[in-house]
Design a protein that fits this description.
mainly alpha, single chain
Length: 115
């Protein structure tokens, strides 16, 4: 049963990551599109839509962080044993540090687009 929950957690983590990337793309496209004169009358509803998608961004980040913590704990239980190379662990730490910077920068970018 633990194995299934671990797989489900990883799936939810990956879906939340994809959702965050999708909101980044959508907000960028929506913001650029609404700069066109044709959107003048629909600008306020579009801004409301941007704010709603920003909420999806925050929810996605929360899910990513929560499931990431669960992944870390289960990875330690199931994978971070003596048979795992130290270089692989170091690469995972570097990858997550870089991803943290990317997610922070992307989210700041989204907030600046909306507000």
């Amino acid at each position: 049963m633990r194995d299934r929950l671990t797989i489900l957690n990883a799936f939810i983590h990956d879906v939340a990551t994809g959702t965050w990337i999708g909101t980044l793309i959508l907000l960028t496209m929506l913001h650029r599109e609404t700069q066109q004169p044709a959107w003048l009358l629909a600008l306020e509803p579009a801004r409301g839509l941007e704010r709603q998608f920003l909420v999806v961004t925050w929810i996605s980040l929360g899910v990513i962080m929560a499931t990431g913590v669960v992944r870390m704990v289960t990875w330690k239980v199931f994978g971070w044993t003596g048979d795992m190379e130290k270089s692989r662990i170091q690469l995972l730490k570097i990858k997550h540090a870089l991803l943290g910077v990317v997610f922070a920068a992307g989210t700041v970018y989204q907030v600046l687009l909306v507000y």
